[in-house]
UniProtKB/TrEMBL annotation:
Transmembrane segments: none annotated. Residues 18-79 form the HTH cro/C1-type domain. This is Transcriptional regulator, XRE family. The lineage of its organism: Bacteria, Pseudomonadati, Pseudomonadota, Gammaproteobacteria, Alteromonadales. It comes from Shewanella woodyi (strain ATCC 51908 / MS32). InterPro entries: Cro/C1-type_HTH, DUF3612, Lambda_DNA-bd_dom_sf.
Length: 513
């Protein structure tokens, strides 16, 4: 076999390795092409050819491969399939949110045609609905961009003119100015069963019907915070999508329904482009509503004056959910997470701009959940005063320190649930010149020595308090005054000694209660 043929048969990871090396060395494609030119002008790749190599569309010649290897001071064999080092083939994402990415290699197995066949089959066999898959795609996109959608922000600011707070009357005037009319309907909550087989109450709060009518449940007349949100969502739908024929339905409860579904319609594992488009438009309209009710600059200034207290939502007459979700957007600190949790283990809403693992699922119920996460302790335990908690969690074998504040609320359908906003403190510690890994390791060990939770040692307390004051988040300071807790993403990885799962589920329940 010739050298060129051998290179072709062993090049499935080549493009990913070159791209990751280039990015880790902070080189653009122009930079890499120019450096290759200096090594050997005859064999150096052009920028466009280099792009095709990185995307797996072309395989370089042996001479060109030697030039690229020389630039990075690597042996040519390092770029081939025989050396698939995990770091070399893992997409470079930095500290952006969500779970780690994977290399879509060999690229011919991740072609559009193959994925179009494989994804519906995967959903069917795993029991994931088309709706769930659409929300997973959107969440990954949202976390990858760390909640930055400037076009949606601008659209909301143009309509709301950055006014804050907006009253119900203001939103009705905006709707009227857009040629929309509001009609009231009388509809009671209904029993529905979600994908996990759990029955709960669900209520249709409003829906838009083209060409220009918003139907609103009469129950919202007594709940202005929800009425404002629904109006803002429908205003967003009309502004962003030109009052198209989509029947936009808003509900409250444990489960969500999409614009293309009616309440009580069983979810399908079939996924199609229209469903995903509808789900994306639902997200856009919801994001727009938050930006309309909490315009970025005024809301950031308000949060800064009040130390990011959750109850700032009362000053604006909006829900705690809207305020907490907007915190993750407007804060200059990007490493946030947000959960909306229903019992016994359902995450209705998830945002992980800091990459924190999921504690429980929102597509299936896990068998070994960690009960020490603040958001889930609050579901089952009465909480007095602040719920602020400092937590230590291993992420990719590295201990990280998180702080969160949670509140228990009741939705309009009568279901209790817990909202949680939190941040990853490691980047903030490192920004102040601290050794975040060492501090987190010391705090983790102190927790292990005390059976899983401990009052924070004075030296670590001082470091964390300094960070809390710089970030200007009051609930971090309150969390520092409480015990720090060891948590895990799954019981099988429990770091406590003895492990919560050492003798099965009963022992974990005993530890929790």
């Amino acid at each position: 076999m010739s050298k060129s043929q051998s290179l072709l048969r062993k090049s499935h990871f080549l493009g990913t390795k070159i791209r990751n090396l280039r990015k880790r060395n902070h080189l653009t494609m122009e930079d890499l092409s120019a450096r290759c030119m200096r090594v050997d002008p005859e064999s150096a790749p052009s920028i466009s050819y280099l792009s095709m190599i990185e995307r797996g569309k072309r395989v370089p010649s042996a001479a060109m491969m030697a030039v690229i290897a020389a630039v990075f001071q690597k042996e040519v064999d390092w770029f081939l399939d025989d050396v698939p080092e995990v770091q070399a083939i893992t997409p470079e994402k930095g500290r952006r949110g969500g779970i780690s990415g994977m290399a879509l290699e060999p690229s011919f197995l991740f072609s559009q045609d193959i994925l179009q066949i494989a994804i519906p089959e995967m959903l069917s066999q795993t029991g994931i609905t088309g709706r769930q898959f659409a929300h997973l795609l959107i969440r990954a996109h949202q976390e990858h961009h760390q909640n930055h959608f400037p076009d949606l922000e601008r659209a909301a600011e143009e309509i709301g003119m950055k006014r804050m707070p907006l009253a119900v009357e203001d939103l009705m005037d905006i709707a009227k100015g857009m040629g929309l009319s509001i009609k009231w309907i009388d509809q009671a909550p209904q029993d529905v069963m979600d994908e996990m087989g759990v029955t709960s109450m669900q209520l249709i709060t409003s829906f838009f019907e083209p060409p220009s009518t918003i139907y609103v449940n009469k129950r919202l007349k007594n709940v202005p915070i929800r009425l404002k949100y629904d109006l803002a969502v429908h205003i967003g739908h009309c502004a962003l999508h030109n009052k198209d024929g989509l029947k936009s339905v808003l509900t409250t409860g444990r489960s969500q329904i999409s614009a293309s579904e009616e309440l009580g319609t069983p979810a399908s594992s079939t996924v199609n482009a229209q469903d995903i488009l509808h789900a994306w438009r639902d997200f856009e309209s919801s994001f727009f509503a938050g930006a309309l009710l909490c315009p970025k600059v005024p809301f950031r200034q308000l949060l800064d004056r009040h130390g990011y207290e959750i109850d700032v939502h009362k000053r604006l007459g909006i829900s705690a959910s809207v305020a907490m979700r907007r915190m993750t957007v407007v804060s200059p600190y990007p490493h946030w997470h947000y959960f909306d949790a229903y019992a016994p283990g359902k995450l209705k809403a998830v945002y992980r701009g800091n990459g924190i693992p999921l504690p429980w699922g929102n597509m299936r119920q896990v068998q070994d959940p960690c009960q020490h996460w603040a958001v889930f302790r609050m579901i089952n335990e009465p909480t007095q005063g602040t719920s602020a908690q400092i937590s230590i969690l291993n992420v990719a074998d590295e201990p990280r320190i998180y702080c969160c504040e949670s509140i228990k609320v009741e939705d309009l359908a009568g279901n209790n649930h817990v909202l949680c906003a939190g941040i990853d403190l490691n980047p903030a510690i490192e920004a102040q010149g601290g050794d975040a890994s060492a501090i987190a390791s010391d705090l983790k060990q102190a927790c292990v020595d005390k059976g899983g939770s401990v009052m924070i040692p004075s030296a670590i307390r001082s470091d964390l308090m300094s960070v809390a004051k710089i970030l200007n988040i009051n609930w971090i300071e309150r969390g520092i005054e409480n015990e720090a807790r060891l948590i895990c993403s799954r019981g099988a990885a429990c770091p406590r000694q003895p492990s919560c799962y050492a003798s099965g589920r009963a022992e974990c329940d005993a530890v929790t209660n």
